[in-house]
Specification:
The chain is α/β, with parallel strands linked by helices. Helices cover 44% and strands 19% of the residues. The chain has a 7-stranded parallel sheet, sandwiched between helices. Strands 8-10-12 form a 3-stranded mixed sheet. The chain binds nicotinamide-adenine-dinucleotide (NAD). Nicotinamide-adenine-dinucleotide (NAD) is lined by residues 13-14, 16-20, 39-41, 58-60, 80-84, 98, 102, 126, 128, 195, 197-198, 205, 207-208, 210.
Length: 344
């Protein structure tokens, strides 16, 4: 295959997922980039058409990932493939294999590729607020916004997997084979964002424990009743999908010397399930929302912070949210979801 050496080539895993869908569109707006997309599932046609190549396969498949990285001379990896928190809690051993094993597989192959080509490979990992572990609603309320170094005691396998992957990324980036004579030959440039709950108008989430808000929104927009699985007072941080995609693109393009750390909190607003329900009832007066907390899923959300401190991202790369809660509904969620279902 002929390659234009001036171009960067991105390998994007989890491309059939919610964020994958948004990120492919975001990356495509950069002409100077080749996109190699992969997922265990068939990638929807709309996303496929924006990619240079798509491959269906397992991120843990060493042979396939090695082939993709080497054949396409990959310069950047956006590693999105994962089992999310609810799904992972049902099958923790599989979650470990995919979430940790898949990340480790890619880091290892990227390091080998970097060593053989003499070029650094940039590696972007979406992490999560699930890496934090608080002791329930009162504790959440008491601590307020959490900073990156605090409460790194996840209470789910998903949070534990992601926290370890952050550590793996930092290790490969800064300390890989630190006692070996040729330790400098592999260069991984790792960065990660701890994402809050993400709200998309065009896609519906599955398998996450922050799904209750997107579920409420999609139900209200389609006139369906919705039973929310957490209490109305349950608070976590959120961002919209356009903001999520932009922040991943921004961290992916950031000059290394502007970054004082590898992992950053990002979020746009903090809101309770009840506040979201109230706003939805304003925009969709017929919305039928009931609250029937599921004790087990409630306990997971109760261990996540009510808000995150984003001052490091703000200081290092001028990160700031685009919308607050009301603006997110007014400027993105309501108009985009109406258009989405009108076209469906
Ligand atoms: N959506 C959120 O609210 C949120 C919040 C924090 C972090 N994240 C992180 O962002 C990333 C993307 O999340 P999403 O919301 O798009 O999730 P998603 O479930 O919609 O997408 C994940 C994709 O990974 C794929 N996948 C799973 N196992 C695989 C395997 N073994 N090999 C290859 N592909 C596999 C799935 O088929 C799916 O298409 C994940 O790493 C997730 O942990 C998401």
């Amino acid at each position: 295959m002929s390659m234009d050496p001036s171009k960067r080539t991105v390998l994007l895993t989890g491309a059939a997922g919610e964020i994958g869908h948004g990120l492919v569109h975001g990356l495509r707006s950069h002409d100077d980039i080749r996109i190699i997309a992969t997922d265990l599932k068939e990638i929807p046609e709309e996303t496929r058409s924006l990619c240079d190549e798509v491959h269906v396969g397992d991120v843990c498949d060493e042979g396939l990932m090695q082939q993709l990285i080497a054949m396409h001379e990959v310069t950047d990896i956006y590693h999105l493939a994962a089992l999310l928190s609810t799904r992972a809690e049902h099958v923790p051993e599989v979650a470990h294999e995919v979430n940790v094993g898949g990340t480790w597989n890619l880091l290892k192959l990227a390091a080998a590729h970097s060593a053989s080509h003499g070029e650094s490979v940039r590696f972007v990992l979406p992490s999560t607020i699930a890496i934090y572990g608080l002791d329930g609603p009162e504790h959440k309320q008491r601590v307020g916004k959490v900073v990156e170094g605090e409460f790194n005691l996840p209470k789910t396998i998903y949070g534990a997997n992601k926290l370890y992957c952050e550590h793996l990324g930092r290790y490969y980036s800064r300390h890989y084979r630190r006692l070996a004579d040729d330790r400098g030959s592999a260069r991984i440039d790792f960065r990660s964002l701890r994402l809050p709950g993400v709200i998309a108008a065009e896609t519906k989430p599955t398998g996450g424990t922050s799904d209750y808000v997107p579920e409420m929104i999609h139900a209200a927009a389609t006139g369906q009743p919705c039973v929310c699985f957490v209490r109305p007072t349950t608070r976590i941080p959120w961002m919209t999908m356009p903001e999520c995609v932009q922040s991943l693109l921004d961290i992916g393009r950031m000059e290394r010397d502007r970054m004082s750390q590898s992992v950053y909190n990002v979020a746009s607003f903090s809101a309770t399930a009840g506040e979201v329900a109230d706003i939805l009832r304003m925009h969709f007066p017929d919305a039928r929302i009931e609250f029937e907390p599921d004790e087990n899923r409630q306990a997971i959300v109760d261990s996540w912070p009510g808000d995150v401190d984003i001052s490091c991202a703000n200081t290092d790369w001028n990160y700031s949210p685009r919308w607050n809660l009301e603006e997110a509904f007014e400027h993105y969620i309501v108009p985009s979801i109406r258009t989405h279902y009108a076209q469906a």
